[in-house]
Amino acid sequence: MAEGYWEHVEPFWETVSIYDGPEEFLQHFTETPEHAAHLFALHWCASEICNGGFHQFFFNSTGVLAPEAVAGFRAIGMTRTAAVVATAVASFGEPYPRDREERQDALDALDPGDAGDGGNSPFADLDSQFYDLLGCENGGMEKAAERYAARFPIPDGPLRGIGLLNRLLAALHTN
């Protein structure tokens, strides 16, 4: 199996928490190698938007990493996609609300109706632009992410590091 971008994300999947608030997220995200962090952020962003649009992305815990997703798309050469995400992020003003409750309140203010109703979402046009670009810009997200990841060695994240340490301890114990 070819080494894919997921192999750069997986070592940090359990340690970079999007669920425990902005401080926890930022602490662990900044400890992640930059290329893996870019891939982590754009993966979450694309997964959420493809599942339920920008509204879902911002409503859920994943919205904590929206600014990092913009940087991730830029890093893999998807600058037009990054611009669409940046436009959606800018809807919240400055500073961007990383706290989920604050972001949900801001989301309610942007769309006082049923924001999750698809076509009436204030993000409907951006959703369409995102979907169109995701599959074609720079060869599509997956191909662009694969090419980007191939430039870097697969990182030893916390999980891989523990596995290596356990193997070394086991080897020492058997000798």
What does this structure look like?
With 175 residues, the chain is mainly alpha-helical. The protein has one domain. The chain is 62% helix and 0% strand. The chain has helices at 6-9, 22-30, 34-59, 66-75, 79-90, 100-110, 124-134, 141-149, 158-174. Helix 3 (34-59) packs across helix 4, helix 3 (34-59) runs antiparallel to helix 7 (124-134) and helix 5 (79-90) packs antiparallel against helix 7 (124-134). The relative contact order is 0.17.
What does this entry show, briefly?
The protein has 175 residues and is mainly α. Helices cover 62% and strands 0% of the residues. α3 packs across α4 and α3 packs antiparallel against α7.
Topology:
Blueprint: H1 6-9, H2 22-30, H3 34-59, H4 66-75, H5 79-90, H6 100-110, H7 124-134, H8 141-149, H9 158-174
Helix pairs in contact: 3-4, 3-7, 4-5, 5-7
